[in-house]
């Protein structure tokens, strides 16, 4: 295999570290609900289930992990054949999840060109099963995934700066969004006729109006800028909670663009190397924000400190 250095890593390292350009109200309470045993590990993304469990992907391993926040226990649920890493994940319909995978390395961080794939995980079986949806050989590095229709998801490509629409029943993939405003596109969400997205390279949180084909119907709108951004959770009113990777913080972005830090700090391990965020999906944890981390693997805290990847619960968000 021939691997090349990931451009988004070079970008992430260039952006580190400085305090987020955001106000700092009293921070919410953070607690680690699960942590791996070894350094150089990387939880990349997560999805929450209606029963309270969390599914987490791993950039350093071809596994999906299942974490129970109540018992604070986790285990490898499935190992995906033919890949080295799992990437973005979303619940497409109840009990059915779509996730990306490919051949990446963490130390040093690199990617095998042409290795991207999209899979489905189905819990409607006695044992959860995975199925290949499609190979994506023309993609560079798929990242964020969000539901779009009953049969389609949208998938971002952070290196190519495009968004694909993929039919999960046929595997057919089309490029639907591209251009300078989509450079470094990372996390994505569809809500109320808009695609919300975080651009790592632009350090900007955008939204763009889209139609039923996921084509843009207007210009991308800048909501907030000035913070390196990874993936995020989005509330019904358009408030985003964004993981900032090497800034080691979770930043809240209000619909009017005001930013505030709700958890972590540059010199803290609380949310060190935060990669994604999701609110719980059960009746008991809908107000709990869960954050995946890479433990500072690509950018150590204070330049020297790393830890194993973990899942953090953030409570008391106002």
Automatic annotation (TrEMBL):
Stored Pfam families? SGL
Give the matching InterPro entries. Answer: 6-blade_b-propeller_TolB-like, Hetero-Diels-Alderase-like, SGL
Output the superkingdom of the source species. Eukaryota
Q: Which SUPFAM superfamilies match?
A: Calcium-dependent phosphotriesterase
Does the keyword section mention Signal? yes
Q: Ranges for the SMP-30/Gluconolactonase/LRE-like region domain? A: 161-293
Q: Has the keyword DNA damage been applied to this entry?
A: no
Provide this UniProt record's keywords sorted from A to Z: Signal
The leader peptide range reads 1-22
PANTHER family xref list: NHL REPEAT-CONTAINING PROTEIN (PTHR42060:SF1), NHL REPEAT-CONTAINING PROTEIN-RELATED (PTHR42060)
Q: What is this protein called?
A: SMP-30/Gluconolactonase/LRE-like region domain-containing protein
